Amino acid sequence: MSSKSHSIFRSNRCCLIITGASKGFGRILAKKFANQFSDQFTDDKESIIKFILIARNVNEIDSLANELRSIDSRINISKIITDLAETKAIDDISQEFERNQNNLSRPYDHYILIHNAGSIGKATELCKTVNVNDADKRNAYYRLNLYSVMEMTGIFLRHIETKPNVSHCHIINVSSLAAIQPMSGMLDYCVGKAAREAYFKQLSNELTANNDSKRTKTKYRLLNYAPGPLDTEMFRQLQQESTLQEQFREIIPLKPEDSADKLFQILHEDKFANAAHVDYYD
């Protein structure tokens, strides 16, 4: 099946924001979006796609930026080198959104925000072992995996509100089976993923209310996508350090490219309920 048949672009002018973009699933998604855009708008010189890449490693982001530019010269890139576990990261992102708004001669019609960044945390934690001495580490964990998602989405929504011509907006939360199923030893990971999905269900409810009152013309599509066990550093960490390491060693991980293809198919078919949890294996 050709890449064009799985297109999710609703406009030839799109702004795409990806957290955790420097490696793993985020990097694969960035390249897939670039190739998809280039294929779909091959001969359209008015087309442009803006990537806002958010990650901690400057060398990896620079190499990704070079790869994206080699795919299509119409690709415009902003890089935010920051740690989402720190509050300063949200200021960095807010400032970039402001620059993006002021430096644009013609507005984007389609925005895509992908919350991909995340961490496992301590993979041997039980409810009974939680104690106040770990409060600082736990706060840093939830700042990265939950609070930054909520705060960044708030900035993003306020940004969209200033853009009356935005027709479509996708917000994709890279989730996990852990959001809906307990996993021994992975307390913070399960709680964080479940809380993120609860947040997006709340957001969906608010956006529905706004649409019902005709206060926005933007069509919002929200998705909690569980990509399956991917062949990444995070999966290898679970095989080596988690309470469930024996079970994870028996699992054959998926290629990130295959899971990215499935995500594009889901978005293209556009049959999911807003804020639905959709797994690679569904």
TrEMBL record:
Keyword annotations from UniProtKB, A to Z: Cytoplasm, NADP, Oxidoreductase
UniProt main location, coarse: cytoplasm
Q: Could you name the Gene Ontology cellular component terms for this entry?
A: cytoplasm
GO molecular function term, any single one: sepiapterin reductase (NADP+) activity
Q: Where in the cell is it found?
A: Cytoplasm
Please provide the Gene Ontology terms (biological process) for this protein: tetrahydrobiopterin biosynthetic process
UniProt KW Lyase keyword: no
InterPro entries per record: Biopterin_syn/organic_redct, NAD(P)-bd_dom_sf, SDR_fam
Domain of life, per UniProt, equals Eukaryota
- Name of the protein described by the UniProt record: Sepiapterin reductase-like
